[in-house]
Design brief:
disordered N terminus, globular, 19% strand, 5-stranded mixed sheet, 12 strands, single chain, 5-stranded antiparallel sheet, alpha+beta, 351 residues
Length: 351
């Protein structure tokens, strides 16, 4: 029986390798439905994948990044849990791409090419209700240093506003590394901005530099290349409180040449009557973790207890939630040397 199974496996492999894999019939639906959303003009991908010639010109690179799992960008382990909006290729899809490249990436019959999905221009969500744009171009000095800059947008909201999505739109995609967005009720962000009137925004590494308690700010979302904004559907919605300023911290990556940027934020409103469950984001920050050098066995976990800047802990700590939560998502983030995260919940019964 063992010999029979082994022979069948070899025969099936050779048979599948002899079939012609073409771009139009087999590869175009994979690329257009998994890659083109970012890899098209004026989006985050550094090259466009909207035609056979564009894809074929990068064929060797595509097979390398898909086989390694580097692309599509989906850090979560698909074998651990299933998540909304997953973006990863199956083993069969990866194998098709590999075979197509090995066969010299033939084009195939043009009539069999998959249609490119319709993507909105200027937004991954649709037509925004409100757009906040930096009031002038921000100068990024080409000194090979990171630049963390917080920009302040005054909303002028006289009443609470519920949103179904908030979308950061980078202007200079080469310079913008990532962005995080929050609503500031204290006015402290605007005060720090006013202290340097000669330059746009104010400098702040890691976070927003606020000293106010967490009740005075609301974390709204963020951006990284390849990341789509969250859209709160059904009866879910987020609240931007009346009178709040929107703070956007942008990390500009090190560069040897001078750059300019004028990014913007799209707001998509939702009627308050539609929102029965308000989505809240807790931002737990620890900027001063101490991890001994050359000691990979040290486990460092944080018990933040909903305080913005807790003490350091070495070892495993328990973090208890003060009330029942429905957890919709988790966004781990490291600025410097983070490599991977494992996040899990444990019931009081230890399950």
């Amino acid at each position: 029986m063992k010999k029979l199974i082994f022979l069948f496996s070899i025969t099936h492999f050779v048979f599948s390798q002899t079939e012609e894999v073409t771009f139009t019939e087999h590869i175009s639906p994979i690329i257009y439905n998994n890659c083109t959303e970012c890899h098209r003009p004026n989006e985050s991908g550094p090259m466009s994948f909207t035609s056979y010639l564009e894809v074929a010109s990068m064929a060797s690179m595509i097979v390398e990044v898909t086989q390694s799992g580097y692309m599509p960008p989906w850090p979560a382990d698909p074998n651990y849990s299933s998540l909304l909006g997953e973006r990863f290729l199956s083993d069969d899809e990866k194998e098709l791409i590999s075979q197509w490249v090995a066969q010299g990436y033939p084009e195939g019959e043009p009539s069999l090419e998959a249609p490119i999905p319709t993507f909105p221009e200027g937004s991954a969500v649709g037509e925004p209700d409100l757009i906040f744009t930096m009031e002038e171009d921000y100068f990024i000095e080409g000194n090979n240093y990171d630049d963390y800059r917080v920009f302040v947008f005054q909303t002028g909201f006289t009443e609470d506003k519920y949103i179904r999505s908030i979308e950061f739109r980078p202007d200079n995609r080469e310079a913008v590394h990532h962005a995080i967005i929050m609503a500031d009720l204290s006015g402290e962000g605007q005060m720090m901005d006013d202290q340097s009137p000669e330059t746009l925004g104010y400098e702040s590494f890691g976070g927003f530099g606020l000293t106010v308690p967490p009740s005075q700010y609301v974390f709204l979302g963020g951006y990284a290349p390849g990341m789509n904004p969250i859209v709160w559907s059904n009866d879910l919605g987020m609240k931007i409180p009346a009178g709040a300023d929107i703070l956007c911290q942008i990390h500009y990556a090190p560069s040897s040449i001078d750059e300019w940027d004028k990014s913007s934020i799209n707001i998509f409103f939702k009627d308050a009557i539609e929102v029965n469950r308000e989505v809240k984001m807790k931002m737990w920050v620890e900027p001063d973790l101490f991890i001994p050098a050359n000691n990979p066995e040290v486990v460092v976990e944080e018990c933040l207890n909903f305080a913005p800047f807790p003490m350091n802990y070495i070892g495993i700590q328990d973090c208890s939630l003060p009330e029942d939560w429905s957890i919709l998502g988790i966004l781990p983030h490291c600025h410097l040397i983070g490599q991977s995260w494992e996040v899990y919940a444990e019931t009081p019964e230890g399950e």
